[in-house]
Amino acid sequence: MRAGLAATARAFGLILALVGLAALAAPQVYGESFMVKVRPETPPRGAEPVELLAARNEAVSFQVVIHGGDSGATAVAARLGELSGPARIGGSQLTLYRQDFQVITQSSSGQDTTGRWPDALVPEVDEVAGEPRNAFPFDVPPRESRALWVDVLVPEDAPPGRYEGRVEVVAAGGFTAFVPVGLTVVDAVLPSTPSYPTAFCIEPDLVCLAHTGREDCGSEDVRVELLGRYARLALDHRFTLSDIFVRQPTALGWEAFDAAYAPLLDGTAPTRLKGARMTSAQYMGPAEEQALADFQAHFSARGWLSRAFDYTADEPPLFSSYEELRVRASLVERAAPGLVRMVTTSLTKAQANGVEGLIGRISVLLQLMAGVEPPDVGPQRPAYDAFLSRPGTSLWLYQSCGSHGCVGDLPDTMRLPSYMIDHPAALNRAMPWLVFALQASGESYYETTARITTAWTDQWFYGGNGDGTLFYPGTPERIGGQSQVPLPSLRLKLLRAGVQDYEWLMRVVEGGDPEFAAQVVRELVPSPLEVSVDAAAFERAREKLIHRALELSPGQPPPGPVVSERPVVDSQGCGCGGGAQGAVLLAGTVGLAWGLRRRYSRARGPGRPVVRAHPSPPTILT
């Protein structure tokens, strides 16, 4: 009897072992959060349905991971036909991409992050020209992972409710797998033009060189059209390329300039986000009084002047001398007094060199605001209140190579927002949270195409991988199709997610609960130098904001329970619950939120639409 039971057990064990081996040998397919950077060595995990939560006119993303198992998979392709519910979401509202790897040979952080990292997104159908491209098919080697990126842009008129669909993945040999997708659309609409203004730069000569082999693109018309495609893709990711004006007015007038750029400035360009318009516009003309005066007059007549600025000096005395700053600021003040003068510096440096009064918009390097580099040492934010009390002034923030360690490795405890390829997704998404927390009005960034000519193979620049490069050149030779288009990086998608987070923060503030928004910020950013790298923490924070925003909207029930209330813990196991700096950050954010709520309430009045403004913050943050 016992011998028979033992034989049966051995046979059963053998069956289980064979089943396990078969399961291991077969490719595996599963849904994954967009906050996980899937590398070749990423191990597979259990399959779970994808669950999304979004407002109308909001873009949400997820990934589909294919692990090759022991056998690998060849000729892999995928499709997502539609999401069905109260209506159907499909067509251009759904975009599938194959993720391409960047081979990292030098780490951005001085730590061991070399190897292959996902970044370039090759679309099935591109977002700008709407042409089929060569995302599929592709192969997955044995015991390696590959990932698809999926974007869902919820239509502005989509009825709220539950939508469902599935991603189908097929491969050679009859392999088929499905990933279920659920989307809950809430009764709220995000604006196409964000309340988070940005001024990101682009280098036209390098863009032309990457696409056409010539710095001038061969003609001005080709140059203008290609730059316009980059500008539209940026607007669809909720940020602005502020210096795309390669066509300038002539003695004959502004007709050619307006034909090229008025749609982008007015919100009539063929963007996927209907009505999206530039939130900033940099003066690109000569340093001459008449040209400046004409620019101000024309932009004022067209209603664009409030978004226009002159980049008066860049990080003096490094790239501009203080004397050059004085000369140009005096020229602009004389010829175009209504044009904002932007300088990238800190208030401490501006005051020490007697130029504070010449600056309208001061854009400050993030770590200088944190007070960790001489002469900006100690709490900095309170000092900016006096500057911001002057009419026409504003505080913006930016990050640079110093944010990821170009002047030496950053301490392990310092985690700043970063657009580097080989940094966690959370740091790529975090900058708008810091802009909110530090009571700034917007973000500037020095370049988006610095290494676009070698973007597919090498983006090392200023000590980082991807510093100053956020696009890829989508040439027909590389991605198929007929026309030249820009391609998004994975980091562009994460930047967009952060800007949408900012909208939800402001919804909660406008709804009357600034303290709640401040607490959510504190959980992710206990101090300006301590951004959580816990991927799930950002998604929990966003969901909390959505729930609270709906609770504060009359007649709008929340969509269900929050996924998790567990404490935010980063990938190193560091608790992100607060501390002395976190308490100060929270206090300042509460003050900012309350001040903004009062400002918005006065602007809106009962029953009026939200007026998106960026007043100087009335309270302090150290």
Q: What's the average pLDDT?
A: 86
What percent of residues are in strands? 15-25%
Number of domains: 2
Overall radius of gyration: 25 Å
Structure class? alpha/beta
Biggest sheet record: 7 strands, parallel
Task: Describe the protein.
With 622 residues, the protein is of the alpha/beta class. It has 2 domains: 23-188, Immunoglobulins (Immunoglobulin-like); 198-604, no CATH class. The protein contains 16 helices and 25 strands. Strands 13-21-20-17-16-15-14 form a 7-stranded parallel β-sheet. Strands 1-3-10-7-8 form a 5-stranded antiparallel β-sheet, with helices on one face. Helix 5 crosses helix 6, helix 11 (431-437) packs parallel to helix 13 (490-511) and helix 13 runs antiparallel to helix 14 (514-524). It is globular. The termini are far apart. The relative contact order is 0.11.
Layout of helices and strands, plus pairs?
Layout: H1 2-25, E1 28-33, E2 50-56, E3 59-67, E4 73-79, E5 82-84, E6 88-90, E7 94-104, E8 115-123, E9 138-140, E10 145-153, E11 161-171, E12 175-189, E13 198-200, H2 204-212, H3 220-236, H4 255-266, E14 281-282, H5 289-301, E15 308-314, H6 322-335, E16 340-344, H7 347-352, E17 361-365, H8 366-369, E18 372-373, E19 376-377, H9 384-388, E20 394-398, H10 425-429, H11 431-437, E21 442-445, E22 460-461, E23 464-465, E24 471-474, H12 476-479, E25 485-488, H13 490-511, H14 514-524, H15 535-551, H16 580-604
Helix pairs in contact: 5-6, 11-13, 13-14, 13-15, 13-16, 14-15, 14-16
